[in-house]
Specification:
The complex is a heterodimer of chains A (114) and B (112). Chain A contains no helices and eleven strands. Chain A has 114 residues and is mainly beta. In chain A, strands 2, 4, 5, 6, 9, 10 and 11 form a seven-stranded mixed beta sheet that branches. In chain A, strands 1-3-8-7 form a four-stranded antiparallel beta sheet, with no helix packed on it. In chain B, the strands form two sheets. In chain B, strands 2, 4, 5, 9, 10 and 11 form a six-stranded mixed beta sheet that branches. A five-stranded antiparallel beta sheet of chain B has the order 1-3-8-7-6, with no helix packed on it. The chains are: A mainly beta (114), B mainly beta (112).
Chain lengths: 114, 112
């Protein structure tokens, strides 16, 4: 078990559905991240939030919409996804954004698009 | 942009020592991190080197040589549970923004 909690653990959805991934941490971390990871590949950064404000969007398609309601929560809203979006979606948090501040990852949501 | 190179696979036996190397690009280097990821699990932070030298944490050590743009993760007294993927990672070189770039990962298989 990790200190970053992601729900749901698994999600199967059709291309026309709307769903949301949720992430929660209670470590007082002020930076939160969304990553996408394909099998046998490294995590790829999607979004960074710093002090609840979006600081990095890695040119992610608009069918992915992040939201940070408060310092403990991070959501990823999904709409009209494509089969190639099937992947493991990881949330992470860190105390700040300095190099020596490690990122703590959740177990991820395994997403399958039909 | 940054790229980090590490071997794709390493195999070793229980009780042995294994070294996983990582070379990185020097543009705006802010330090090298190592993460472990078991199949189906979350990446877990192992170690960080901001300065040259060796950092030791139990059976795991990490080394950095900035002059050689090179680091390695050393795993001693290997156990079966060490079978996992290991990623080296560095921060974005243009600024200290929190963007972490991962290497492609090294799959370590520990055999009895």
């Amino acid at each position: 078990d990790t200190e970053v909690t992601q729900t749901p653990k698994h999600l199967v959805m059709g291309m026309t559905n709307k769903k949301s991934l949720k992430c929660e941490q209670h470590m007082g971390h002020r930076a939160m991240y969304w990553y996408k990871q394909k099998a046998k590949k490294p995590p790829e950064l999607m979004f960074v939030y710093s002090y609840e404000k979006l600081s990095i969007n890695e040119s992610v398609p608009s069918r992915f919409s992040p939201e940070c309601p408060n310092s403990s929560l991070l959501n990823l809203h999904l709409h009209a996804l494509q089969p190639e979006d099937s992947a493991l979606y990881l949330c992470a948090s860190s105390q700040g954004q300095l190099s020596n501040q490690p990122q703590h990852f959740g177990d991820g949501t395994r997403l399958s698009i039909l | 942009g940054q790229s980090l190179e590490q071997p794709s696979e390493v195999t070793a036996v229980e009780g042995a020592i294994v070294q996983i190397n990582c070379t990185y690009q020097t543009s705006g280097f802010y330090g090298l991190s190592w993460y472990q990821q078991h199949d189906g699990g979350a990446p877990t932070f192992l170690s960080y080197n901001g300065l040259d030298g060796l950092e030791e944490t139990g059976r795991f050590s990490s080394f950095l040589s900035r002059s050689d743009s090179y680091g390695y993760l050393l795993l001693q007294e290997l156990q079966m549970k060490d079978s996992a993927s290991y990623f080296c990672a560095q921060r974005n070189g243009s600024s200290n923004t929190g963007k972490l770039i991962f290497g492609q990962g090294t799959t370590l298989q520990v055999k009895p």
